[in-house]
């Protein structure tokens, strides 16, 4: 009788892959977690309770069939595990690295709720697909038959790349237009290498190119090429630009030099540290934290990326100001713990009031307390009068979130409808906009969100585009 590989959560404790020590990892931009060994991946997968109602799956935006690929991994059927994993996820090795599993699949694991410690879903997901790449199981999209329809995708981030993958596998001719010199969007230039090493992203770009996806880089729509020109050349257009406009700081002195945008800072670091590009602003020190007292303002994942990057650049000190407490911060608690281990100091219930000096020399900070809940149900921060103090700073990084650019104006397309938040107005799931043949996916529809949601949107939209092409073909044949 075969030995039961599952339901081992009582005998086997939760275990993560080894994490490099803080003193070792805070000197480079390599990923901090090691890979699971084969036996350890089997062991941890075998802790899954194979729930009748898998909450891990239902709380995953992609509804990944997590219990099945855990069972296959525990049984040593790794190629089948990969096939199940990639059936619903275009980039499982990326999601395994950067998804906030503590808020999604792992945070809703049934054995976690019963006190046994969640299954290490993300680490196993990463292990499965990394092994698939090593074994040559990951293949470029190879359609059985080519189609005549052509789709333009504006934006080479996760939503656009996911849509391209689905469309290309169906034989559609796909061209991706992007303003940057490398595809990947925030996965390439926004997320630091210690969370997502750049060869991981680059090989996915190369895989799509090998499969027939055409990339037009350094293309700033509305400047180097008009939206109407792109639309005229293709049967459908997918807007997947993301949201790149940083929210601004208010208060006296907020325009001083030395106060920089998080995305500018992270892009410079990724270019210099991960790609070896020459970045004048990094070399001059404008976007480099070396030997500086750094203050990062914000409590989301971008703020965590900034503080941990500053540590690696050799900052004298790194402090993070957040107006709510630790429990109410939007960023991953796992990332906060990693940052604290690496030497970041968090100043909870604090907010900037003003800035002194130009270049900046200090942040005037006011202390906060949590008051009544706001419209979202979260307690609103209130200023404690007379609590001001000064925090010395040579570099202040604004990580307050992102807003959409004004695409109708920038692209000269006033008929492109947007919401009151400036996001493109599109149908739920299908991504259809009011413009015939124009779709929109990811953050430009949702607002700043997670990579996994962009992947979900891109895949869903691609399926609806194929349906719409089929419907048009049926009408034309009548």
UniProtKB/TrEMBL annotation:
Keyword Iron-sulfur tagged = yes
Q: Which organism is it from?
A: Salipiger mucosus DSM 16094
All residue ranges annotated as the Dihydroprymidine dehydrogenase domain in the record: 25-136
Keywords for this protein: 4Fe-4S, Iron, Iron-sulfur, Metal-binding, Oxidoreductase
SUPFAM superfamilies, A to Z: alpha-helical ferredoxin, Nucleotide-binding domain
Regions that span the bilayer: none
Query: Into which EC class is this enzyme placed?
Result: oxidoreductase
EC number(s)? 1.4.1.13
Q: What is this protein called?
A: Glutamate synthase [NADPH] small chain
